[in-house]
Known about the structure:
This protein is of the alpha/beta class. It has helices at residues 9-21, 75-87, 96-108, 121-136, 179-189, 216-226, 247-251, 280-285, 296-311, 314-335, 358-370, 389-405, and strands at residues 42-46, 49-52, 57-60, 114-118, 140-144, 171-174, 193-198, 230-234, 257-260, 271-275, 339-343, 350-354, 373-374. It has 2 domains: 9-65 and 314-405, Aspartate Aminotransferase, domain 1, CATH 3.90.1150.10; 75-311, Aspartate Aminotransferase, domain 2 (3-Layer(aba) Sandwich). The chain is built from 12 helices and 13 strands. It has a 7-stranded mixed β-sheet, with helices on both faces. Strand 7, helix 6 and strand 8 form a beta-alpha-beta unit. Helix 11 packs across helix 12 (389-405).
Amino acid sequence: MKNTTYEVPKSDEYLNKAKKVIPGGIFGHYKYALRESGPKFFLRSEGAYFWDVDENRYIDLMCGYGPSILGYNHPEVEEAYNSSAEKGNTVSLASPVMVDLATKLVDMVDAADWALFGKNGGDATSLAVMIAREYTGKRKIIKIDDGYHGVAPWMQDKERPGILSSDNDHVLKVKWNDLSSVEELLFNQGDDIACFISSPYDHPVSRDNSLPEDGYWQKLTDLCRKHNVITIVDDVRAGFRIDLKGSNVHFGFDPDMICFGKAIANGHPLAALVGKDDLKKAAEKVYFTGTQFFSAPPMAAAIATLDELKKFDAPKKLIKYGEKLNKRLVLVAKQKGFNLIASGMPSMPYYRLDGVSFETHIKWIDECVKRGVYMLSYHNHFISLAHSEKDIDFIEGATKQAFEAL
């Protein structure tokens, strides 16, 4: 592999144009990539790759922050989307495809007796909290400190711009894997706690990811049921990358509701909330909707995506691929005198250089990106079924050169 690095003048040019008409140039979670060098705008995408506006090709280890689980422009998914779009998109009636997708989720996901749909993961988490409050008649939410469940004001820290302190009045925070704190909150305030919400394992930004300790989820769900507290799993990020029946099945517990998004339609905008039959009447009462919630083509794409994931036993393949990639990268780092930590589930690993400053870690990521491997310093990464053995060889070569550049 030649030791060549990419230049991105057109990306920089577009960023300067963007700043004139868009606050900050790029907003939302994509703006955090601005603190790192590299491309900012893409030209096209295919499979495991995208090309920036300067026509540099990248092996994408972010997969659009998770949605591209099958790879970009997957033929079966795009065919399903386009076929549905020919019949109509957002129409004044719901499409039968909504019923078909709900039926598929109920059949596939262990904890699902019903399904509702939105556009973003935050739609599913906010709806889940509203249903829990309606069902229990209680107000408060327990969440993991640094756990991310969307951008609704109740979820964001009160120090963030535009957030009122009152937005968090009913949010209680605990540390991950800390059962004693949950038990204390339930004992003291259980009469007003509606739900506990968490991802199936801890995947915060800029910190090592960690799995649940043995018995954590089983004991926690038992505690919640004892106090009539609804358990909500935010499977937006990890959903279908660990177990097609729900990530909770892998970790051996039974929640009341599960939130899905990202990978459910391989990049087409869709989110889903599934839940137990006991909550069905409460879900029917709660009013939560959006103009585009009934758009049919993304639902058709989701059915095709779920079919493809099942056909190829996707979680098993993604985890196996991630394990191999992690092993190769950790070994390359060791050979070059660095200690690379790969944490979390192998199908969506978080990487961190141990024993060096975070600035050095960012520099290493930058050097990888300059050599055609798209990564981010602060976020977990994602594996897709489109990633190949040849891609591992390329990633290994690029990261080796990146270590040498440090």
